[in-house]
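Person: I have long wanted to understand how a fold can be written as tokens. Underneath my words sits a plain record pairing an amino acid chain with its backbone structure tokens. Those tokens are not coordinates but codes from a learned vocabulary of shapes. I should like you to check that the lines agree and flag anything odd. The protein I mean follows directly.
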Amino acid sequence: ADIQVALNQRNQSEAALLQSRADLAKAESDLALAETEFRRYQSLFEQGAVSESDRDVYRNRVDQAAAAYEIAQQALRSAEDDVRVAESSIEAAQARRNQVVVDLEDTQLVSPIDGVIAYINIRQGEYWSSRYLDTSSPQSVIETAPIVVVDPSTYEVEMEIQADDADALRLGQCAYVVLEEAVSGAQANGATEQDLLEIARREGSEGRVFAVSPSQTPGGRGTRVTIRDLQQTSNLKVGARVYVWIETLANPDATLLPLGSVLARGQNFFAFVVNEADGTVEQRRVTRGVESSSGVEILSGIEPGEMVVIEGQNRLVDGTPVDVINREQVQ
């Protein structure tokens, strides 16, 4: 801003300088004309052709033109001084800007890696010294470093599951990781398992099982599991609690139904199949297989290609008449 002000002042001074030069040139021309007229009338006066008073009129004109010429010269010198002052102001403003750049470089904190800020443990105005840093443990570093920068590509999730469940885990299995805060509210409001899985798919991050500990944790029957290769790290936070779903089995030829289309009644599971011949639904008992975030495997009870009701099943009973309103929307 200071440089721009100085530049504007210089532009104005240069414009005034041009005008002063033009005024000086005009004053010089007027003086030369007045002197010529005076010499002519002086000659006529000496010849007795004009009176002394007539000659004095032109003498006064010379004096006036000479005074105007002197004023124009002073104005020109003043304009030149203004231009020099403006140039000095520009140089001073540039010097101040350069000093600010230097000062800013001295106050910048530069991370040795590309990443995101995970923790800020210092506020404006506070003093920090390297002797405050505690490197006795990773947690101590996190708590005492002024700013902690992490590389999102190195994110990993550490979790512990019951040893019996760990038998189904294999390296490379797909896992969905989502922040606890993203699902806790829905869980408190009575969200179904299907709802929670959809939140995990939509708001979480897909990753892979990287490691499964071969031993159980001391004092318990848990097995430590590590998830890496997270795809959407912007949805995660360092140190945050998360929910994890792991797809332990996969069958690419399985018959799948959308999550929520299978109802549990007692110890059995049912689905409603549309009988297009008579326009009713049939309640069928089904055997469930693997459940994933994309659906539930049906081992028996429904054949591929049959039409199944996936919404509003709680209002149906065996034999309820139904209409297929929009066949293009049938999944």
User: Anything to note?
Assistant: Residues 52-107 form the longest helix (56 residues). Residues 27 and 69 are 5 Å apart (CA to CA). The chain has four domains: 2-107, 116-150, 155-246, 255-329. The helical segments are 2-46, 52-107, 138-144, 163-166, 180-188, 193-203.
